[in-house]
Amino acid sequence: WGMSAMMSTNSRERAKAAQFGRIAALIGGWLPGLISPFLGISDGAGFDRKWFFLIIAVVFGFGGMAVSLFATATKERVPVPKEKQTHPFSSFSLLFKNKIVVLIVFSSLLGNITLFLQQITFFEYMMPNNKIFGIQLDGLTLSFIYGLCVGLPGSLTKPFALWTARRLGGMKNILIVSAVFNIGFRVVAFAIGYEGWRIVLSGLFIAFIGIPSQMTDIATTAIWGESLDYTEWRTGKRNEATVFAMQNASSKLSGAISTLFLGVTLRLLKFGAPYPLAVNEIFKKYAWLLFILTPAAGSLLHLIPLLFIHYDDKMKDVIEADLKYLRTLRKGGNVTIDFEYYYELYDDDEESTFNTIRW
Question: For 135, phi and psi rounded to 5 degrees?
Fold first, then answer.
């Protein structure tokens, strides 16, 4: 993903690259969704689960790695300022001057500090046998169908991420809207319940969450690229590798925190893997709450740091214009700056005006 910030000096072109990449990742991500129904079939046939998962690991692992080699054809087009590295951690120190990255990482970590129950666990143990609209479904199959119906509407919105960002005033606002949707619609879905046909109605409301949330990975990747322009604008330096390494690191840390809280949740529910042990009274009482409602608390925590990111489309355009002039100067070219235009764009922002005059 670090390459997405090096493909172009234009933020809209970078966002488009991120959009295409994420759409491809989505299509690849649908394949693991087939694991649930195939697992149900293999269990019914008496096939040992360990061999089933071994086959899946080999096919998906080697298949994904082979396809990812196409990334080697990507070209780097963003000029990187040449400078002498005085310290091996100089690129890392730039992270703390990039408040956009700091706030997004903090937001990502906070968003996973919540108790929750996985979808497949809820359906397998709380809805093992279901008759919905006259059709008999086991929990694993219902989980697959539910996930497909809930995720598909949002998946279809990925091609409109750039259009949506322009209408909302920036990629950051996609993240904010997504958090608000997750909080509001989960509260409604929890109130509806899950017994019988109610799971269909509550699922419809959860599907609305996917409309902005399916765009957040595109928005986040685009924002990380924009943060590099912001860092270069402030310091004259870029650190693509370090910034996108932090993106991966924050993703791993967020996953670790999420797994920790999942373990705590199962412990509190006195969950036991064998079917008779899993469905105790505590599990029955709180499973729906933990599956549908408590993730809204994580979204609330996730939302708070995002509100402190003051970087909209107007500021992005100004910084890109500044960097265009600066890169021309680095090449030894002549630059004419329209100060009236800049003062209008900056809206009396002292730091921005100072940088323009200095250049």
Answer: -110, 130
From 146, 154, 97, 99, select the one nearest 126 (Cα to Cα): 146
Q: Please state, in angstroms and rounded to a whole number, the distance separating the CA atoms of residues 44 and 49.
A: 11
Q: Tens digits of per-residue pLDDT, 68-96?
A: 788 788 888 887 766 655 566 777 788 88
Query: Comparing C-alpha atoms, which of 330, 262, 209, 241 is closest to residue 1?
Result: 241
Kindly state the tokens that stand for 45.
């046939």
Give the span between the Cα atoms of 176 and 309, in whole angstroms: 11
- Assess contact for 162 and 16: CB atoms under 8 A: yes
Identity (one letter) of the amino acid at 32?
P
How far is it, in rounded angstroms, from Cα 120 to Cα 23?
A: 24
Q: Which two tokens stand for residue 75?
A: 């070209």
Q: How far is CA 244 from CA 23, 66, 110, 286, 316, in A?
A: 19, 22, 19, 38, 19
**pTM score:** 0.76
Q: Which whole-number Å values give the CA distances from 21 to 7, 18, 35, 59, 144, in the listed order? A: 13, 5, 23, 21, 25
Return the HEC string of 244-304: HHHHHHHHHHHHHHHHHHHHHHHHHCCCCCCHHHHCCHHHHHHHHHHHHHCHHHHHHHHHH
Whether 173 contacts 200, CB under 8 Å: no
pLDDT in tens, 193-241: 988 788 889 999 999 998 999 899 889 888 988 888 888 888 888 888 8
Residue 115, C-beta contacts closer than 8 angstroms, at least 6 positions apart: 261, 264, 265, 268, 290, 294
- Measure the CA–CA gap between 323 and 43, rounded to whole angstroms: 59
